[in-house]
Write a structure and sequence with these properties.
The protein is an alpha/beta fold. It folds into two domains: about 55 residues, no CATH class; about 45 residues, no CATH class. About 30% of the residues lie in helices and about 15% in strands. It is built from four helices and six strands. The strands form three sheets. It has a two-stranded parallel ribbon. Strands 2-3 form a two-stranded antiparallel ribbon. A two-stranded parallel sheet has the order 5-6. Strand 2 and strand 3 form a beta hairpin. The two termini are about 35 Å apart.
Length: about 120
Amino acid sequence: MITGGRIKHHLAQNVARPESTILFVGYQARDTLGRQILEGQPEVRVLGRTLPVRARVAKINGFSAHADRKGLDRWLDGFQSPPRRLFVTHGDADVAAKFAERVRRERRWTVELPEYLEVWDLD
């Protein structure tokens, strides 16, 4: 999603080069730099600089490391007994909320959707 690390430096060096290709192989969340590029923004802000997107942009589907609904259900099925609480902390807000509600309804588990910087005592 190009939110930090070395990839930002690689991008800063190559995003404006028409001979370069930016190849996405995973999901790009809303409001991330990766999503902006994938959606065709003509310019992006990288490391404090606004740069034109002249590189070719491409995407290969099917390489995401994230589980889909079936994969998450298989993982939940592996619990011998329900956890005291299930925390859903990843994914787009609307999808995470729907997933949490489905787990509450179908499994009758306690599911939390913590807010940013919210603190929970797990004792």
